[in-house]
Q: What sequence folds into this?
């Protein structure tokens, strides 16, 4: 038997239902939307030129890029100590801690976002606590509320790769450094952190990419006041005034951004392999 | 100097512990509040009104919940079955055959994992609207929402199954397959009697992953049904409830039950994993 035929069913499926749809996105992004909403086929860059409008970049696209970056940074700051703490433990405690990080991440995304909806609403505990401290922040419907939801949703994607790299580190290097008079802080910054860079980068990629395309979190926690890439794409396809050609161009720009980030990541991976 | 350094170390150490503690609170606080509110007597989901099982009673009385649950389970079961077969075959082809243009073929198979889900969802929406529905109506048929959603779910699951099965296939001891060939087995016999049984745990993990992804999916389902009109899975039902001006209390009950279901599923997955590791 030629094992090559095993390829065909799955490959044909993905060509038909994945590659062809991507091709259709490309074709429609080059088409023209008539005032009546119909699509006039053709080849022009008008939709892409419309995306150059600074209003988009100051608004939804800018929001997506900034929120994705902030989510990545906050997740790293919160997640690194946790990953480190888990990696330095052993036995059942370690497994339990790891399990507790993964567990919320297996529950439905909408359920998790909804839980934050309860917590962040103006009559909720957190708003009450903040008011008691003299801070009157509208959390629901603000970028801060969306950021909290995003960090919650993607934190495990940061912790897991960090944990995987820190766990494999050779901690005798740290002992050696401390024997030579380095403080813990120094040994962390000069040895552990640089060695865990692959985990940091992997975590950053795993958080940054999906947040760029997010639609549910800004929609539910942003209450329509924090437009992002994904929200805009949904609007162009399922909103009251659909504009498929423009939406298709947005989807392709989003995909290109993601592939660019990934290409950069794999490039770095290859280089660090040459060095290390 | 030494004392100062020890103090600094101790402060850093306690900050580490504090941060870890805060992160775990951060992870579990929303879940705790959700479960608590699912036992609230109030008519509104966001108001605490004393203990009651009322939200659960309302949930089971809601006529939309049973169809949504059924849709979710049927879509997950059928799409998992198809995706598991296709994904396993792809993994076998990648590891056991010499393919032309293997790099490009692999790129196509890995792409669904890395691109944002919303892009795939948009592609399917356009494909259904521009190609598949016109094609079906030309044949005098209509493409219902269920087959469309199924198709989409198979499409995003195949690659994940392939990755899981391929990882195991790579570590498999080839000498067992070679021994079977030497003893005169045909390649079909080797596949059925040697390779597939050895792969069974990985295929099961892949299927479980596909099942979870399908149960959880929002984007592809939402776009494939052009906004969930007329056909709802559980996530779409949750989304619709949240869109209402006053969220009804059964929302909390449903969210809590879904939480329970996913915890049970992971526990099951871990149990299977532990068993197969021991075996």
A:
């Amino acid at each position: 038997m030629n094992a090559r035929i095993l390829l065909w069913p799955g490959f044909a499926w993905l060509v038909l239902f994945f590659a062809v749809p991507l091709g259709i996105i490309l074709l429609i992004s080059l088409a023209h939307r008539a005032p009546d909403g119909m699509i006039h086929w053709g080849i022009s860059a008008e939709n892409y030129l419309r995306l150059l409008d600074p209003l988009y970049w100051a608004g939804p696209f800018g929001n997506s890029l900034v929120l994705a970056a902030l989510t990545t940074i906050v997740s790293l700051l919160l997640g690194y100590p946790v990953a480190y703490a888990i990696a330095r433990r052993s036995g059942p405690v370690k497994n339990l801690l790891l399990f507790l990080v993964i567990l919320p991440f297996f529950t439905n995304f909408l359920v998790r976002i909804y839980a934050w909806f309860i917590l962040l609403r103006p009559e909720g505990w957190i708003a009450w606590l903040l008011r008691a401290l003299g801070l009157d922040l509208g959390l629901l419907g603000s970028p801060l509320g969306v950021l909290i939801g995003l960090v919650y949703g993607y934190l495990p994607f940061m912790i897991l790769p960090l944990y995987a790299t820190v766990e494999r580190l050779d901690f005798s290097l740290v002992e050696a450094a401390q024997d030579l008079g380095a403080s813990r802080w120094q040994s962390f910054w000069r040895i552990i952190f640089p060695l865990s860079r692959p985990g940091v980068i992997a975590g950053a990629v795993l958080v940054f990419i999906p947040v760029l395309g997010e639609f549910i979190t800004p929609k539910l926690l942003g209450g329509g006041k924090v437009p992002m890439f994904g929200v805009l794409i949904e609007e162009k396809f399922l909103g009251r005034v659909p504009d498929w050609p423009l939406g298709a161009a947005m989807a392709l720009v989003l995909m290109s951004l993601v592939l660019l980030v990934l290409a950069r990541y794999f490039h770095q991976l290859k280089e660090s392999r040459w060095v290390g | 100097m030494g004392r100062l350094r020890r103090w600094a170390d101790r402060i850093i150490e306690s900050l580490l512990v504090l941060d870890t503690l805060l992160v775990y609170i951060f992870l579990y606080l929303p879940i705790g509040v959700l479960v608590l509110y699912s036992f609230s007597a109030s008519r509104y989901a966001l108001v605490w009104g004393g203990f009651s099982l009322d939200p659960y009673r309302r949930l089971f009385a809601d006529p939309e919940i049973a169809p949504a649950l059924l849709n979710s389970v049927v879509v997950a079961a059928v799409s998992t079955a198809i995706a598991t077969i296709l994904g396993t075959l792809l993994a076998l082809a990648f590891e056991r055959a010499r393919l032309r243009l293997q790099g490009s073929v692999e790129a196509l198979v890995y792409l669904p994992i890395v691109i944002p889900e919303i892009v795939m969802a948009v592609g399917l929406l356009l494909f259904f609207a521009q190609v598949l529905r016109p094609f079906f109506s030309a044949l005098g048929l209509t493409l219902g929402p269920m087959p469309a959603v199924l198709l989409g779910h198979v499409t995003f699951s195949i690659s994940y199954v392939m990755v899981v099965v391929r990882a195991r296939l790579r570590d498999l001891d080839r000498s067992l397959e070679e021994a079977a060939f030497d003893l005169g087995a045909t390649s079909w016999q080797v596949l059925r009697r040697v390779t597939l049984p050895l792969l069974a745990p990985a295929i099961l993990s892949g299927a479980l992953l596909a099942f979870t992804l399908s149960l959880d999916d929002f984007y592809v389902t939402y776009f494939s049904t052009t906004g969930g009109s007329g056909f709802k899975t559980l996530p779409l039902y949750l989304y619709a409830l949240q869109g209402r001006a006053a969220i009804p209390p059964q929302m909390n009950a449903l969210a809590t039950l879904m939480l329970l279901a996913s915890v049970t599923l992971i526990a099951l997955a871990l149990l299977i994993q532990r068993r197969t590791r021991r075996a």
Chain B has eleven helices and no strands. Chain B has a mean pLDDT of 87.
